[in-house]
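User: Predict the structure for this protein chain, please.
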Amino acid sequence: MEPPSSRDPTPPPAIQSSVKTTGAMPGPAARRPHKKSRKGCAECKKRHIKCDEQHPECTNCMNHTIRCSFSLPSASSGSTPRPTLNSNIQSPVLQQLRENHQTPSPLRSSHESPDLNISDLELLHHFTTSTALTLSPDKRHAQIWQLFLTKEAFSHPFLLRQMFSMSALHLSRLRPSQANDYIVKATINQDLGLAEFRNIIRNITSENCVAVFAFAGLLAIHAFALPRTPLVGTNGDLEGILHCMTMTKGVNTSLLSWWPLILQTDARHLTVDLHQTEIYNMDINSFPEAVAISRLRELCVSVADPGASSAYDLAIRELQIVYAGLHHYKDRSQIGITCSWCTRISETYILLLKARAPEAMVILAFYAVLLDRFSEYWFLDGWGQHLIGVISHSLGPPWEPHLEFPVRMIGNAMNRG
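Assistant: Here is the predicted structure, written as structure tokens:
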């Protein structure tokens, strides 16, 4: 697949001239008639390109991630149009930005040429030199993101947009004074990436399967990297994570038949889950938290609905495998083993979480204990404690005895910190 051209389309029509046989000088060159755009945005007029006049942002400005004059306040109307940010992963903080944030001041050079997007180049540079180094403690993984998968992204814009989005979220943490601008850039880039990805996922091929795999990995991290509300008791953060679980599980299912091909590429080093043989040979009842997990199983075994009971049993077994794997395979990627749980739970369990079924929420609290172990990662910092706070507030006092283990473990971690 050829990489998309960054130049603007539609070169000027060929100018044809004819020399009369009399030898007279040719007249003015004839120009092909065309319809002029007199209501285009200021940015397109400045760059001398045709504007499609789409509101609230024209396609040219959206593709170049620059500020479109259509999104600016109108002097005559007195109203203030907002940028259209239709991300499916919801966050209360993002929602507030959508409602209150004006069009961000562009992070562009005043000497930028029409075909050079400094903002995108900044995000790509930061991803390859900084963000990629923070996704895993394994230096080999960082090199795969920096070299192999970045090159892959040049042929698959949906992956490139997701890289831009992750880079922007990382920059929002590093540069607090520009955080809102970078968060909006992250959301716009993910919206554009997801729009293409939804079409790609219906037609996975040997050419795009590696890019789909990489996109799914970044998507899972992205859900945690989004800003979260500081108010315990809101469910917006949980909705974003559940949406991510649904998409990640769906992508992994779609990639099943392509795993042999993916495992022949450098991307195979990012597949850090435990193998079935390792799980079979591992004592999944031998780890420090085994007693607490057994009590969790006793709680869920009494559920009357057979479908729910089966979903809980699978979720707890997979959680047990993760706890045991972290204990027995300390030389493996700990964060990779932890994240594998989200791909192994059933769709029924995710639906039960969306319905806020108490048993499902308690199981998630036990998983949050594991997330809290990785607070050194900027995108997971504080998530374990935050999730348990949201779950405790949602369930209320009657369920406090069943949350004793997660709350105690988080408290111990905070005391050690």
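The two ends are 49 Å apart (CA to CA).
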